[in-house]
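QA checklist item 7 of 12: single-chain prediction sanity check.
[x] sequence parsed
[x] length recorded as 459
[x] structure emitted
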Amino acid sequence: MSSEANVPRRVVRPAGFFALSFGSMVGAGWIILLGDWLQRAAPGGALLAMLAGGALMALVGCCYAELAARLPRAGGDFLYALEGLGRTAGFIVGSFLTLFLVSMCAFEATALPWLVTELIPSAQGQTLYRILGEPVTSDAVVLGLAGAVAVAVLNLRGVRSSVTFQRVVTFTFIGIMVVLMVCGFVFGAARNLQPMFAPPDGHPWTVGAFWIFAMCAMLLNGFQAALYVIEERAADVSVRTATLSMVGGIVAAAFFYAGIIVAAGRMMPWREILPAHLPAVAAFDGLIPGGVVGKIILVVSIASTAKTWNALLLMASRILLAQGRAGMVPAWFAKLNERAAAPANAILLLTLVSIGGMLLGKGALIPIINMATICITLILVLALVVLLKLRRRLADSPGYSVPGGVTTIYICLSGALLMAGFAFFGPLLQRPGHVPLEWVLMAAWAALSLIFSRVAARA
C-alpha cells in the first residue's frame, strides 16, 4: 500500500459539516417517538423539554468546537479522552462510544423495515421468531440486511461519497419537512394542543419532561460526526468554520424537533393521534385526502434513516481507526483502502455487529435507546472534564474558544450530569425491583471489550 493510501482525502466543506451534524441527529427517531413524547409530557412539557435540551446541547457543541480546535484530528471523544485523561479513560470512552454507535446503527436497521412496511403493507413477511415479546419477520431481516450492505458500500467508496449523499438527502429532507410544519401551523389550530400540560395517563408532566430532556443527549447527539472527518476538511476550510457549521446543525435539529411537536399537535386534537401506529403520520395525513401526505412522510423518513445510518457508520469506523492508531485494537482497523482512503476493515466489522443488533427486532428498540442514552451522557461528562483540564494546561485556544468561557463549560457539565443521572436510573424507575436489561448489556459489553483489548495487546 502506498503512503498516500493512509492519508485522508481533504474534500469536506462547511455544507458537508452541517449535513453530517444535522443528518446524524435527525433520522427516523422523531416519527417513532413523537407519540411517546406526547403521552409522557403532553405538548407543553415535550416542547419545554426539547427547547431546554436543545439549548444545553448547542452549548455542549460549542465546547466540542473548542476541543476540536485544540485537537484537530480524527477520533472525536476517544481522542479527547486519550489526550486529556490517559489511555485507560481513552479505552473506556472508545469502547462505550463504539457501543453507542453500533446500538444506533442497529436502531436504524430495525426502524427501516418498520417504515417500509408502513408504506407498503404488502411487504410484511412471515414471522421467523420472537424476541422480547415482539416478532422478527422475514421482511425485517431482508430489508435490514439490504440496508446494511448499501450503507457499507457507500462508506467503502470514501468520505466524498458519504458526505455527498448526506448533503443531498439532508437538504431535501429539511425542505420537505419545513413545508409540512408550515402547513401544520397555517392549517392547524392552537386549541388542538389543549390540554398543554396534562398527560393522558395522569402522571405529572414534569416526569415525562425530564425523561425527554435526558433523551436530548441521544436525540441531539451525533453532531460529532463532523469532528470525525475534521482531518478531511477542504484545504481552505478552517477548524473554526467547520465546527461552527456543526453547531448550526445542533440548533437546526433542536428547532426541528420542537417544530414537529407543535405542528403535529395543531393538526388535530393531540390525544386523538396517540392510538395511531405512527402518530406523526396520522397527524399530517389529513392535509390531503387519500393519505398522500402520510406516504410522503414515510418516504422522506426512509431516506432520512439511511442518511443517519450512513453518518453513524462513518463515525464508528473513525473511532476504530483512531483506536487502531493508538494501539488499543489491532492495527488492522487503522488501515485505509487504496481506492477511497476509507477504513474498510472497520466498516465491514461494524456492519456485521450492527446486523447482529438488528436481528433482535423491534422489542429491543427501547432498551437500545436507553442504553445509547446512558453511554452518550457519560461520554459527554468526560469530554467536558477533558476540556476543563486542557484549559488549565493552556488557557488560550487556537482558533476557537467557548463563549462565556469556564462558566459555560460548568453549566454544560451540570446539565450533562443531570442527563446522565436520569438516563442511568430511568430504566430502574420504570421497573422497580428488577435489574435493568440496559445495565446487563453494558456490563457484558465492558467485559468483552476488556477481553478483546487484552488479546489485542498480547498479539
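[x] summary fact logged: The radius of gyration is 21 Å.
[ ] second reviewer sign-off
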